[in-house]
Automatic annotation (TrEMBL), chain A:
Domain 2Fe-2S ferredoxin-type: 1-76
Coiled coil (UniProt feature): none
Keywords: 2Fe-2S, Iron, Iron-sulfur, Metal-binding, Oxidoreductase
Annotated TM spans: none
Keyword set includes Oxidoreductase: yes
Pfam family, one: Fer2
UniProt name for this protein: (2Fe-2S)-binding protein
GO molecular function per UniProt: 2 iron, 2 sulfur cluster binding; metal ion binding; oxidoreductase activity
Species, as recorded: Skermanella aerolata
Domain of life of the organism encoding this protein: Bacteria
TrEMBL record, chain B:
Residues that coordinate or bind heme c 3: 322, 325-326
InterPro entries linked to this entry: Cyt_c-like_dom (IPR009056), Cyt_c-like_dom_sf (IPR036909), Cytochrome_c-type_DH (IPR051459), Membr-bd_ADH_cyt_c (IPR014353)
UniProt protein name: Cytochrome c domain-containing protein
Binding-site residues for heme c 2, renumbered to this chain: 204, 207-208
Length: 167, 430
């Protein structure tokens, strides 16, 4: 048994320790935000945060994740109370087919936690490991800029921590 | 009385010595010129210079990240300190706009700038001295017709007394073998062309030949393997431990496309070299491959790989993180570019390139697309990196175990800043 801490909750996982995290998230823990894209760590759609850094979960075996803090898109907010990155992606309609979007949100979250007011070049650099083939890149850029704004206002900060209705 | 005379004699010697050194170190200033017009250079000479500048990947060390081409500011990290590439655009104030053709040729051949200052051998004039007068004219024509950019390169970061440039005269006396390349009449024209390019403008030995304590190439160990910016530059001579010996065709494929399936994919400091070579004609690439292959000697069988002990934790990491791409028959039937059992990097005497690749990932040689292989800097702890590196060595190579893998991992982690937000926690393995 391996204990994984996902979105602040510990989960006992009975799986081969070589199993990539993505399969455990989707098949065992029923967290389906992270997507299987290429399975080779090349497209970024399976990204999650590990100790605050974006990692490709499709090639990250759970054996190295004991005691590490894993965060997925489910941990960024809820349907009723989306987090600032989620809200910004919705407001900018950044998704076309949407398959790559959780990975982009994870990259954006990691960037904004590290760099609250990123330049466009920094955003592009941070999103480089994520591929989108619908071509919504310009909207994704806008969404990340908008999310940066949300995260800097007391409003957005307060709602994500205490779940207060922001309407 | 006697003591006074001895002291006097010593003083005299010191004065004469210092005077002699000053005479040796002193180089004249060459007159500044008005920056020439583009029309001063025939187009075919500029085109020839462009090709040579690509062969020498001048832009790499003379361009800062995100900066204008050739405007300088690239930090070249050497064991002595950091040297910044200078501005070689024709800007008269901060570049080489006031340099005459003669001043340019002197800098290439003797490592002296227009004002007469000695240049640090981070600028590889020990190679460029082999370049022909015609080719220097072409390079000059090319550089003098680039966009002038006003940009002052940062000051070099060197410890005392290395900022004192006249010392370089002594270095040159010891190590600079000045003079243009001479053909070997016993060899083919292609071999000579390759030797001329590889020894001169392409300066392969700047990284692939080991250096002594004073930073000079050990010329009796030519191409025996050196280093560059935290990477090992593999041996290009009979010291190569590549499981599949390199030959002319594989060297050509590697230099042309950045990959030889039985050997390696260009990464680290070699990736920009390959990018620059993309505009160089086939025959020049072929010529360099011919010359280098000739020096790699006889084929030797690689020793068989050893057995990996059962219950190795790194085997689990390998199975979950690496096997999908690096083992045949994975779910996506995807073949990695290079079979690990054939990889030059895993068989070479130095573990750094393997650690660099796992930590930072591997880009395509043109660096345009997403990474070919993701980096595992945020995923593995230093201990896990070291164990995985040792596992790869044992499993895929019959060469002796690497030493000080942990030290290399820690150094690469700190040098590349490959740690991200949670660096300390990950680095400490918590």
């Amino acid at each position: 048994m391996i204990t994984l801490s996902v979105n602040g909750r510990d989960h006992q996982v009975d799986a081969d320790p070589a199993t990539p995290l993505l399969y455990v998230l989707r098949d065992d823990l029923e967290m389906n935000a992270a997507k299987f894209g290429c399975g080779l760590g090349q497209c970024g759609s399976c990204m999650v945060l590990v100790d605050g850094a974006p990692v490709v979960s499709c090639v990250t075996p759970i054996v190295v994740l004991e005691g590490r803090a894993i965060r997925t898109v489910e941990g960024l907010g809820t349907v009723d109370d989306p987090g600032p990155v989620q809200r910004a992606f919705m407001e900018e309609q950044a998704a076309q087919c949407g398959y790559c979007i959780p990975g982009f949100m994870i990259s954006a979250q990691a960037l904004l936690e590290r760099t609250p007011s990123p330049s466009d070049a920094e955003i592009r650099d941070a999103l480089k490991p994520n591929l989108c083939r619908c071509g919504t890149h310009m909207r994704i850029m806008k969404a990340v800029r908008r999310a940066a704004g949300f995260m800097q206002t007391a409003d957005a900060g307060a709602t994500t921590s205490n779940g207060e209705d922001r309407r | 009385m006697r003591t006074t005379r001895i002291l006097g004699g010593l003083l005299l010697l010191a004065v004469v010595g210092a005077g002699g050194f000053a005479a040796l170190a002193w180089r004249s200033e060459l007159d500044p010129i008005k920056p020439p017009e583009r029309s001063a250079f025939p187009p075919e000479r500029i085109a020839q210079g462009a090709k040579l500048a690509s062969l020498g990947y001048c832009a790499q060390c003379h361009t800062a990240a995100g900066g204008k081409p050739f405007a300088g500011g690239y930090p070249l990290k050497t064991p002595f300190g950091t040297i910044y590439g200078t501005n070689i655009t024709p800007d008269p104030e901060t570049g080489i706009g006031t340099w005459s053709e003669e001043a340019f040729a002197r800098s290439m051949g003797e490592g002296v700038d227009r004002e007469g200052h000695h240049l640090y051998p981070g600028f590889p004039y020990d190679h460029f001295t082999r370049i022909s007068a015609d080719d220097n004219r072409a390079l000059y024509a090319y550089l003098m017709t680039r966009e002038p950019v006003r940009a002052e390169a940062p000051a070099n970061e060197l410890p005392w007394p290395l900022q004192f440039r006249p010392l370089l005269a002594g270095w040159k006396l010891l190590f600079l073998d000045q003079g243009a390349f001479k053909d070997d009449p016993a060899r083919s024209a292609e071999w000579n062309r390759g030797a001329y390019l590889a020894e001169g403008v392409a300066h392969c030995g700047a990284c692939h030949t080991p250096r002594n304590l004073l930073g000079a190439r050990e010329t009796d160990r030519k191409f025996a393997g050196g280093e560059s910016e935290g990477w090992h530059a593999p041996a290009l001579n009979e010291a190569s431990t590549a499981p599949v010996p390199w030959d002319q065709d594989s060297l050509y494929a590697y230099l042309r496309k950045g990959v030889s399936e039985d050997h390696a994919l260009a990464a680290g400091p070699m990736a920009p070299v390959i990018r620059n070579l993309s505009s160089v004609p086939d025959e020049d690439i072929r010529a360099m491959a011919t010359y280098i292959a000739d020096g790699m000697g006889e084929r030797r069988p690689a020793p068989p790989a050893g057995a990996v002990p059962a219950g190795n934790g790194a085997a689990t990491v390998y199975a979950g993180a690496c096997a999908t791409c690096h083992e045949p028959g994975g779910p996506l039937q995807f073949a990695a570019p290079v079979d690990l059992a054939k990889a030059t990097s895993i068989a070479q005497p130095d573990p750094r390139n393997v650690i660099q690749a796992i930590m930072g990932g591997v880009m395509t040689p043109d660096a345009a697309a997403a990474p070919l292989m993701p980096g595992f800097a945020h995923i593995l702890t230093d201990k896990q990196f070291a164990e995985l590196t040792a596992y790869l060595r044992t499993r895929f190579s019959g060469q002796p175990a690497w030493t000080d893998i942990e030290g290399h991992v820690a150094r690469i982690r700190s040098e590349t800043g490959s740690a991200g937000g949670s660096s300390t926690r990950i680095a400490k393995g918590e």
